[in-house]
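Subject: Sanity check before I submit

Could someone independently write out the structure tokens for this chain? I want to compare against mine line by line before I put it in a report. The sequence has 271 residues.
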Amino acid sequence: MDLLTLVIIGLFVGLVGGMFGVGGAIILIPALNEVLGPNQHLYQSTAMIVNLFVAVPAVYQHHCVRAIEFATVLRIIPMAVASVIAGVAVSELGIFAGEGEAYLRGLFGLFLFACVAYDIYRMWRITGAAGAAPESGAAARLRWVSLAAVALPTGFATGLLGVGGGILAVPLQRRFLHTPIRTAIANSAAIIVATSLVGAIAKNYAVISDAKSSSEPILLACVLIPTAVVGSLVGSRLTHRVPVQLVKGAFNLLLLLAALRLTQSAVRSLH
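---
Independent answer below. Compare away.
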């Protein structure tokens, strides 16, 4: 039953990741905590591998419809990769070791709360306020300060929490680069390929180096990847065919539930 559940989780993770350009770890890590019990470092190591395999087919689909801005992506990736390594290093600090993984689990839950709160704020904020018109065109998207505002938080969250980074990369592109939503999703998928590859190597090296952990992340990822790839192919096609807002409300409810469960579990463990 656990194996069947993992196969279904992989399919759903790929579908969500492909549709929203988020890699899928924000669904995968809470789901694994529910099914297999708390083990945050193992699940983050696994998620980084799965993120890569979710992102690659999504990038292919987005490239087929010419949705990716490669000029923007290629400038974001180097800074994002550097901050991924920094994030992994922080996640391996002593405070998060052993029973301290509950702190990392709680931090992940708080991160999900923040993502939901920000998305609700963006949906309900008053539009049309007076102010300077946003800079448009390629110039706005290639300013290094704006690019860093997207790359650094995206990469650090990837390394610290094991997420694909798209949950930040998409809204940050919208905020700082004024990128259309579908283009932001496509760019995010391309960025995730690089950040997940580097993050998976760094995090799994740290986890596998621990004799008690062995190769569990790789074995768990191998169960999840096949259906995650299928889900990603379907989800990334739906991005360009289905109004994204139709499913965003349900997606936020799912994140909210995951955030509640993770923080509750972390508090119980710490007590």
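---
OP: Matches mine. For the report I'm noting this point. Residues 126-134 have pLDDT under 50 and may be disordered.
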